[in-house]
Request: fold
Amino acid sequence: MQFRKPVLAAAQVAAAVLLGAATAADAAGLPAARSDFRVETLDGQTIRVREIVAAGKERLNAQPLVLVHGARVPGIASFDLDVPHGSLAADLASALGTAVYVMDARGYGGSSRPAAMERPPGESRPLSRANEVVPDIDAVVREVSRRHANARVALLGWATGGMWAAYYASLWPERVARLVTLNALYGGASAHPTLGPGSPNSDPARPERLRPTTGGYALYDAASLLPSWDRSIPSDDKASWRAPEIAKAYADAALRSDPQSDRHTPPAFRAPLGAIEDSFYQAGGRRLFDASFITAPVLVIRSERDFWSRPEDAEAFARDAVRAASVRVVTIPGATHYVHLDRPERGREQLMGELVAFLRGTAATSSSGG
Reply:
């Protein structure tokens, strides 16, 4: 196996990215067919999945794509908003000519919720940790593969979803065709300003441990979803960076994801905190999985203004992924953690170009880039 391919000239890299961006831009806005279904995990959990196929391009590509959401907001709100440039899933389905699948991990959205989520959050430890979510991804991958003549499946995970997807790819490398992590942690450094040891999440008595009062889940209202996004935007005019209709659709879809959101004033949806515990340890320098087991081509994308992942995470991942067919690390200049929901000129267009080129197999492959 060729572990690293030669670095292409900068002009060739730029050409590949621009070609992908142009293709994505031409495809964006085409109508897409959507259908929801459920799969069952080996431990009896029910996982909701949405299939998205662009009109006139039904499964032209044998390599389907699964999108994995992050810590708070489930799949539909993260990847399939019904506003222009709000559906990464539909835009990728149009550009790639394949089916794209959006899943909800257990405890999120339309998937099974642990019984502890029906009780006050303080009555359980953080729910839906990585060792539970990885089997959810496995159930989805197996069903998606079955629908596509047993093809291997491409995975794209955002934030904690990137960590979960990479963890899965390290355990079942033979099932993964390509892997994309977007703004994901990987234990690349022992210090983090908001997440790890010494942060408000840590135990004051034993800072290397998560605060013991952290409950099984948290409640989030619409107002809680925007401050971290707003702080990342280097402009007082947030609308110049993020379309107001995107922000509203994102919050509305997050609230709709939980049938119990209207029981609270203001309305609030439940999200498990297992992802926060996993991220706490990654932020402190621990690695929950070993990237050396991954064999697929890998694209590691970071936004320059990301508050979640660190440059050290991308560097450590690339260094550890010694058996990956190729590794490309890209930093999108000036982009935020929410780059796939920002305006095209604020990083989304470059993101789409990188994704389309990589998932088509036409991108330059190297140990660094962007």
About this structure: The chain is about 30% helix and 15% strand. The longest strand covers residues 32-40. The first helix runs from residue 10 to 27. The CA atoms of residues 66 and 299 lie 15 Å apart.
